[in-house]
Amino acid sequence: MIVAGCDIGSLTAKAVIMENGEMLSHAVIRAKTRPAESAALVMQMALEKAGFAQKDIGYVVGTGYGREQIPFVNQVESEISCHAKAAKQLMPSVRMVIDIGGQDAKATRMDDQGNVARYIYNDKCASGTGRFLEVMAEALEVRLEDLGTLAAKSTEKLSISNQCVIFAETEVVSLVNEGKEIPDILNALHHSLAKRVASLARSIEVSEDVVMTGGVAKNTGVFQALSEALNVPLKALNGVDPQIMGALGAALYAMEKSNGKK
Amino acid sequence: MTIVAGCDVGSLTSKAVIFQNNRIIGSSIIKSKPRPGDSAEAAFAEALAAAGVAAEQVEYCIGTGYGREKIAFVNEVVSEITCHGKGARWMLPTAETVIDIGGQDCKTMKIDKNGNVGKFAANDKCASGTGRFLEVMAKVLNIGIHELGGLSQKARNPVTLASTCTVWAQADIIKFINSGVPLEDIGAGINAAMAARVAILVNAVKPEGDIFMTGGVAKNIGVVELWKNSSANASSGPGKPIPKSPGRWGPR
User: Does the A94-236 domain belong in CATH 3.30.420.40?
Assistant: First the structure.
C-alpha cells in the first residue's frame, strides 16, 4: 500500500510518500496562508515526483502546527511523536531529538527502547527558534540558506549578549556599524541560538545519541554550534533531509496503520 | 543658592535637570546620540540654556542611566533605580511604589519615605514590557509612538494578543490589520499587553501605597489608564500631581 505523511509547519509544509517501507519521494514548500492549501499543494508535488495520484494513497497521517486543518488525512500525530519516530527508524541508537522549526524549538528524550520519555518546547519566545535566524538574515541582507556557509568563513570570535530577538537585532546592527564582518556576526548568532536551545535540551537531561531535525538543522553553523553548546557531538542523519523528519515520521505511522489493516 | 544638576543618559533619550532651591529651573530631553558622552553634553547644554545658567555655576552634578559611566562632567554616578525612587518621592510624597518603563527595560521598586529603594525587580532581557515593544508595534501600525495612547482610548472592542513575545505579537498585529480590525482596537490590545507584562514585575515587589509611574512610557495615557483601572491607588507621571515637567522627575 502507498502511504503518506504530511507535515504542515508555520513556515514550510512537507510531504513524504512511502511504499513497502521505502521512501518514494518527498517535497518541501513554503507554507501558504491556509494550512489546507499548503497540504494539498505539497502532497500533489510529492505525488507527482513518485508518479502517483491522490487516489492511489491508502493512508495519510498529518502532523505539524496545521495538522487539524488538513482535509484528507486519516489520522493526526503530534510533531514530537513524528520526529522521534523518524529518528528512531533512521538511527536506532538515538536517545534525543532536537527539532528547531520556524516558530518553535523542541527537545525530546527517549527511553532505552527509543520511545518518547520526556519533551520540552519553546514557542513563547522567538529567541531559540528559526525566526531568530530569519530576522537576522533579513537585517544582514543575506539569504537564510547561505547562513551556514557564510559563518564558516568567520575569523574573529564575537559574542551577542542579548537573547531577545529584538535586542539582538539592535546589537547586530551596531556590530555592522562598528565594521565587523558578516561571517563573524553570523557565527556569533549561531552560538547564541545554540546556547538557548542547549539550555532547553539540558532541562530534560541530554542523552546520547543526539540528532537535530527541522529546517534549522540544515544550517551547518548551527549544527556545529549546538554540538559545542551541548558538549555532545550531534549525529548526522545519513543523507536524509532533516526538514522532512516530521513528514517521514507521519508516513511511518501511516505505514504501521496500513500493515495492521492487512 | 547652590545650583545642582542631574543627567540621565538612556538608551533612547537623554535627559538633564537643573535644580535650585528644591525647584527645577531648567530641563531637557533629547534623542540619544551614538556616543553617551555626546548625549550628555547636548542634554546638559540644553537644560543649562533653559535655566539661564552657565555650566560653571553648577556645583554638583550626578549622572545616571545606562550611559552614566561615559559622562565627563559628573561628580558622582548613581543607578537609575535609586534616582527614579528619589525623584518619584520628591514629586509625589505619598508614593511608595515606582514603575519605570524605559526604552529598553522596565523596573519596579518600593521606596521608603526618603525615597530610598527597598525591594526591586527589573527586566532588561526581553523587549516585551519595555518601551521597545510599543515602538515596534507603533511602527507596524504606521503611527507615532506618542499617538498610541490617544488611539487606544477610542477603542470599542480591544483585541487580545496571544503572545507576549514582541516578535510573535508583531505577527499577530499584522494579521489583525490584514483582517480589517480597527486600529483603535489593535492599539488598545497593544497597551493591554504592555500593562499585563509590566504587572508581573509590579506584583513581584508587592506594591503598596501610591504607585508612581516614571519613564517615557508614562506619557502613554493608554497604558496609564489601564493601570489606574487595575489598581485603585495608581498615580502616574502625567497624572494629577505631576506637572508636565520632564527630566529625572516624572515623565521624561
Answer: yes
Q: Are B101 and B200 in contact (CB under 8 A)?
A: no
Peptide bond into A56 cis (omega under 30): no
DSSP H helical ranges for B107-182: 131-141, 148-153, 166-178
pLDDT at residue B247, rounded to an integer: 32
Domain spans in chain A, listed from the N-terminal domain onward: 1-91+238-262, 94-236
Whole-number pLDDT of residue B238: 36
Determine the pLDDT at residue B250.
35
Q: Which domains does chain B have, with CATH numbers?
A: 1-78 (3.30.420.40), 80-252 (3.30.420.40)
Q: What is the mean pLDDT of residues B124-149?
A: 92
Considering all CA atoms of chain B, what is the largest pairwise distance in Å, rounded to the nearest integer? 61
The complex's ipTM works out to 0.85
How many contacts, defined by CB atoms under 8 Å, are there between A and B? 34
Query: Is pLDDT larger for residue B114 or for residue A230?
Result: A230
Work out the pLDDT band at B245, boundaries 50, 70, 90. very low
Residues of A in contact with B126 (CB under 8 A): 125, 163-164
Q: Quick one: closest CA in B to A166, which residue?
A: B127
Which residues of chain B are within 8 Å of residue A164 when distances are taken between CB atoms? 125-127, 166
* Chain A CA closest to residue B133: A166
Sites in chain A below the pLDDT cut of 50: 262
Candidates A124, A164, A169, A177, partner chain B, best to mutate (most B CBs within 10 A): A164
Number of Cβ within 10 Å of residue A189's Cβ equals 29
Chain A residues near residue B179 by CB distance under 8 angstroms? none
B132 vs A167: CB contact, 8 Å cut-off? yes
Distance between CA atoms of residues A262 and A249, nearest Å: 20
CB contact under 8 A, A164 and B136: no
B166: nearest CA in chain A? A166
The C-alpha cell at B248 is: 529625572
Q: pLDDT digit string (tens) for A7-44?
A: 999 889 999 999 998 999 999 999 998 899 999 999 99
- Sole residue written with cell 532533516: A242
Q: Please name the fold of domain A1-91+238-262.
A: Nucleotidyltransferase; domain 5 (3.30.420)
Average the pLDDT over B60-80 and give the result.
Answer: 93
